[in-house]
Amino acid sequence: MGVKEMLGRVKERFNIDEGQTSPPLQAAVRCHKGKVREENQDRAAIYTTPLGALLVVADGVGGLSAGSLAAEMVVEGYGSLLSSADRGTDPKIALQHATQTINQAICDKQLTAKQSMGATVALALVRGTTAYVGHAGDSRVYLIREARMSRLTRDHSIVQKMVDHGIISDDQSRKHPDANVLTRSLGQKAVELELSETKLVAEDVLLLCSDGLWAYVEEDALLEAANSPLLTAEQCADALLDLALHAGGSDNIGIIFLRVLPAGSI
Questions:
Q1: What pLDDT score does 266 carry?
Q2: Burial degree of 264 (CB within 10 A; 0-12, 13-18, 19+)
Q3: Could you report the average pLDDT of every consecutive run of 10 residues in the chain (266 residues)?
Q4: Alpha-carbon span 11 to 5, nearest angstrom
Q5: Which residues contact 41 (CB under 8 A, 6 or more apart)?
Q6: CATH superfamily to which 3-260 belongs
Q7: What's residue 135's pLDDT?
Q8: Parallel, antiparallel, or unpaired: how do β-strands 42-49 and 140-145 relate?
Q9: Amino acid 200: pLDDT
Q10: CA distance linking residue 81 with residue 104, whole number of Å
């Protein structure tokens, strides 16, 4: 399946394209159950695929076993399906096809298990200098460039709609009682991945995370922890995880940190 890492740590610099059309990348994965939850329903992994480096974070929705299983199906499903994709396939088509296949599998599993289950997903497929960013739910992808952080995803949630309509502020949305009510996630009928493209340059950072990080740590603190070029990807990922735990660790925490290195760094 070409997996780089599952539920743990990856400490590696790698280049996906042997022809050197892709920049070298440095990445790290963290997945932690936090300090309160009995089980970790977050999953995170990095895969090497014919279409590029695939980064996936999923946050399970449902009972203890159901949420964990859904998140595993999401992360392993994207890894397996993209790893077997033809190199010439359009990345967006491949990602949407994988989404439909995984979503149907989760829907089928709900019928046999007779319980509700699903998962959010945030992913990035880095091919050459382009990142294809996709999500469903409230797991997020951030871009950090030149000491500035921008969010590349928009939460599929009730509170995000309230923020968009000016009913509440972004800060208020974090503590709203409906903060966990999603409008889209895998495991629902007719779900599509919301996709966008971003051009990457040297020293860019992609941060993928579940709400166990972003809902408890302010963006200024995230930026400070992730923006130091003197720290390795491993050290930045550790710093981000520590922030979530120091904020109380009330939820599971899934993190992928990826830095684009200058050409010739490997």
A1: 61
A2: exposed
A3: 37 46 90 95 97 97 86 98 97 98 96 92 97 98 97 92 81 72 92 97 97 95 94 97 97 97 79
A4: 9
A5: 59, 60, 61, 64, 67, 68, 71, 252
A6: PPM-type phosphatase domain (3.60.40.10)
A7: 98
A8: unpaired
A9: 98
A10: 14
d(CA 89, CA 86): 5
Smallest CA-to-CA distance from 205 within 127, 258, 245 is with 258
Domain boundaries, the chain: 3-260
Strand partners of residue 46: 5, 55
Give CA–CA dist 8/95, Å, rounded: 24
- C-alpha distances (whole Å) from 188 to each of 203, 228, 231, 252 are 37, 39, 40, 22
The 3-state secondary structure of the chain reads CCEEEECCCCCEEECCCCCCCCCCEEEEEEEECCCCCCCCCEEEEEEEECCEEEEEEEEEEECHHHHHHHHHHHHHHHHHHHHCCCCCCCHHHHHHHHHHHHHHHHHHHHHHHCCCEEEEEEEEEEECCEEEEEEECCCEEEEEECCEEEECCCCCEHHHHHHHCCCCCHHHHHCCCCCCCECCCECECCCCCEEEEEECCCCCEEEEECHHHHCCCCHHHHHHHHCCCCCCHHHHHHHHHHHHHHCCCCCCEEEEEEEECCCCCC
Q: Which long-range contacts (CB under 8 A, 24 or more apart) does 86-92 make?
A: 86/50, 87/50, 87/51, 89/51, 91/51, 91/52, 91/125, 91/127, 91/132, 92/132, 92/195
Confidence at residue 21, expressed as pLDDT on a 0 to 100 scale? 63
